């Protein structure tokens, strides 16, 4: 079901439709998380990538930006305005850059509760998903609560100076080359560098193929300006107004079970 979630915007809260699990997280946070009053954690940010390696291939990762595609997190180059540069022109829909914030993950079985991380996954409709690490592969992925709950969903945090992103207390992120020399697993889209978390601090032993390139990377928080966030919200509202009939209208008027199917294409 799509419900309104407040995105912190210069001291005010603006509503956008999001999935049930994230909305539940807001309510849970207000009641049980001491950080509920610390709305700076709800300021949206992008993730810029830096890579300190002398390897020539590392240039494809350094000064990049994190994008979300095919249920995974990828690293691609960025332009001077911090917009993703697609590896191949005319990719449709356009690559969507991570744009998210911290919020408590809604799971009563996690004690103590864990701070999660969410991001928009599309602009039309504006929708949020949880960012998580697959327990089997250590890939950085995104999905709804059902997809994420059995995996590593936190504790996400920032570095002491609030400039970087950490998970479980450290910066264990790596970029893994998923190209095959002639293309990638995603064919014509040209995506090559996938984000992983080296959870065991062993160079992803047993998680990557022999000879597969890997670089340590740093995820840098780039806070979105009030103007950027306001523009996004205005564009989202316009799209919702235009779609006065059809799927978006159904999300708000159908019974709960039907609304879930409309958002995800299946019951969650």
From TrEMBL:
Keyword Signal (UniProt): yes
Organism: Lojkania enalia
Signal sequence region: 1-15
UniProt keywords, alphabetically: Signal
Protein name in UniProt: Uncharacterized protein
Region named Disordered: 232-251
């Amino acid at each position: 079901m799509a419900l309104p979630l407040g995105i912190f915007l210069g001291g005010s809260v603006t509503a956008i439709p999001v999935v049930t699990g994230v909305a539940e997280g807001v309510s849970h946070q207000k009641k049980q998380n001491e950080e509920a009053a610390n709305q700076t954690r709800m300021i949206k940010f992008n993730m810029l990538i830096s890579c300190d390696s002398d390897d020539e291939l590392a240039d494809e990762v350094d000064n990049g930006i994190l994008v979300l595609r095919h249920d995974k997190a990828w690293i691609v180059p960025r332009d001077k305005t911090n917009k993703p540069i697609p590896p191949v022109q005319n990719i449709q829909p356009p690559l969507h850059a991570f744009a998210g914030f911290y919020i408590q993950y809604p799971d009563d079985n996690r004690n103590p509760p864990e701070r999660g991380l969410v991001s928009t996954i599309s602009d039309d409709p504006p929708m949020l998903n949880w960012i998580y690490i697959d327990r089997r592969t250590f890939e950085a992925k995104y999905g709804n609560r059902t997809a994420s709950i059995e995996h590593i969903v936190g504790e996400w945090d920032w570095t002491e100076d609030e400039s970087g992103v950490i998970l479980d207390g450290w910066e264990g992120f790596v970029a893994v080359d998923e190209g095959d020399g002639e293309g990638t697993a995603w064919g014509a889209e040209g995506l090559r560098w996938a984000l992983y978390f080296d959870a065991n601090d062993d160079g992803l032993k047993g998680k990557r193929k022999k000879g597969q390139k890997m670089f340590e990377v740093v995820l840098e928080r780039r806070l979105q300006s009030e103007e950027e966030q306001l523009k996004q919200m205005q564009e989202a509202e316009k799209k919702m107004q235009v779609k006065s009939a059809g799927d978006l209208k159904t999300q708000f008027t159908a019974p709960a079970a039907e609304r879930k199917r409309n958002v995800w294409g299946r019951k969650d």
